[in-house]
Amino acid sequence: MADTTARVLRLLSLLQAHREWPGPELAERLEVSPRTLRRDVDRLRELGYPVHATTGPAGGYRLEAGTAMPPLLLDDDEAVAIAVGLRTAASGGVTGIEETSLRALAKLEQVLPSRLRRRVNTLQTQTVAVRGWWPTVDPDTLALLAQASRDHERLRFGYRRRDGTESARLVEPYRLASTGRRWYLVGWDTDRRDWRTFRVDRLTSPLATGARFGPREPPPGYVEESVVAPISRYRAVVTLHAPLEVVADRFPGPGATIEALDEHSCLLRTGGDSLEWLALTIGMLGLDFTVHDPPELAGYVQLLAARLQASTAPPLRQ
């Protein structure tokens, strides 16, 4: 019985890790006959796992989505990752998900082996969750937007801009984007015939219309730039005179995009709320650079360079 149980668990693990297994290959991995494999598959079905089988020379097995949530088999790293994700979600920006996340986390911790429980508890006790001031979003709204993006289904909703003006929008959704504190919907605005980025907490009464559309792609870098631009006062465009791999190692900041121009230079697009911060951040890369936009940043860099130059003087005589 112990060997059978272990084998069935191994079968479940293989089915969860792979979309579809050919029958002969699966039997070989488990070191059993095709007949024993069929019996083990039947045992999983009796436990509530919807295992679909196809017949013929190319037949095989795959684990399908079921109506109920059967137990999952997780390795050590997967279990820790889920626990950390649940803890993060409990302090995140989705309305009403905190209590649900904590309930799920309690169930997971109850069955974790002691060695993994210690790892999870260490992360929890040594981590401080800082509550933000930003608004939360409704999980049902996120699910609706994600499903419409996946199914290429047009959305209709009301939207309130930063200045308070409201308008009706008909949008072909592309992706949801998260900065860690806010959620955004990126999509093609059918009335304005252009790409737009919407803060999800400013959407009202979103509705999937049922009308399908052909998928389209935004310009390269649009998603990152459009998400950062609304929360940055200044958007900087700078040529860095260094190879892309050198710049990427030195500028890992969120919201920045780096595009190779040639083997020796690349284009940096980033944002910031102050000219001082942008100038110092770019200057501290230790690379030669040329500022293209905004003009205020170019002027500030010239002022800063003159100030630094004027600050040098011969050593004082003793």
TrEMBL record:
PANTHER family: PROTEIN PAFB, PTHR34580. This is Transcriptional regulator. The lineage of its organism: Bacteria, Bacillati, Actinomycetota, Actinomycetes, Streptosporangiales. Residues 4-59 form the HTH deoR-type domain. One of its GO terms (molecular function) is DNA-binding transcription factor activity. It comes from the Bacteria. It comes from Streptosporangium minutum. Coiled coil: none annotated. Pfam families: HTH_11, WCX, WYL. Keywords: DNA-binding, Transcription, Transcription regulation.
